UniProtKB/TrEMBL annotation:
Name assigned to this protein: Multifunctional fusion protein
Organism of derivation: Roseateles violae
Similarity-based family: Belongs to the cytidylate kinase family. Type 1 subfamily.
Record text on subunit structure and interactions: Monomer.
Residue span, Cytidylate kinase domain: 6-214
Task of the protein: Catalyzes the transfer of the enolpyruvyl moiety of phosphoenolpyruvate (PEP) to the 5-hydroxyl of shikimate-3-phosphate (S3P) to produce enolpyruvyl shikimate-3-phosphate and inorganic phosphate.
Length: 218
């Protein structure tokens, strides 16, 4: 495909989503939050009482999902599930269903449909390695676990949800460990990915870095 793709992969709470949104906005590109698809599949399956360890059953639910993305919100059969998808429990469910190859096959197909002119910025765990191996620019975003836990803590406090930083750090490290060690599309940088550690960067600095890399590629 001639339609350019920029992939941003990395661990939990590394700031992929914000970076992807800002880069897409700057370039006028579409954006794919692939984690939202895994979160939606986990939510849809748990709502109908499907065992999240049953890959075929979850894949069947995922295949039948009526998902719509509009104005930064996610709708499941017309219901706005965006807020529910952001909950920690949705992230944990997502990483549970993401370990099943049949689920990944269904969701990969949906992800390819997001590629449309003039371009796409896709964030997740395997965007550069599996879903868009021909991406024009691949970024692997990292930040220390302490930094990521602190950011997640701030987000929750801002929403009026109390949380314990140490507990958050343990949760995100457990989820990262599962994402890195699973056999189906484990989290790892693509061979041709550029590494970006944003622990000491503002969002604007990270955006500027990615846009600079992009200018050099063009
Ligand atoms: O990025 P986010 O936190 O929304 O992702 C939730 C979970 O979905 C991740 O922990 C991971 O297990 C899974 N995921 C994945 N592949 C992707 C995106 C997300 O396996 N491309």
């Amino acid at each position: 495909s001639d339609i350019p793709v920029i992939t941003i992969d990395g661990p939990t709470a590394s700031g992929k989503g914000t970076l992807a949104d800002e880069v897409a906005h700057a370039l006028g590109y579409a954006v794919l939050d692939s984690g939202a698809l895994y979160r939606a599949a986990g939510l849809a399956a748990s709502r109908v009482g499907v065992d999240l360890d049953d890959g075929e059953a979850v894949a069947a639910v995922a295949r039948g999902m009526e998902l719509r993305f509009a104005k930064g919100r996610v709708f499941l059969a017309g219901e706005d599930i965006s807020d529910e998808l952001r909950l920690e429990v949705s992230g944990l469910r997502a990483s549970q269903v993401a370990a099943h190859p049949p689920v990944r096959r269904v969701l990969n197909q949906l992800q390819l449909d997001f590629r449309r002119p003039p371009g796409l910025v896709a964030d997740g765990r395997d965007m550069g390695t599996d879903v868009f191996p021909d991406a024009a620019l691949k970024v692997f975003l990292t930040a220390s676990a302490a930094t990521r836990a602190e950011r997640r803590h701030k987000q929750l406090i801002a929403k009026g949800i109390s949380a314990n930083i140490e507990g958050l750090r343990q949760d995100l490290e457990a989820r990262d460990a599962r994402d890195k060690t699973r056999s189906a599309s484990p989290l790892h940088p693509a061979q041709d990915a550029l590494m970006l550690d944003n622990s000491a960067q503002t969002i604007d600095e990270s955006v500027a870095q990615v846009l600079e890399w992009w200018q050099k590629r063009r």
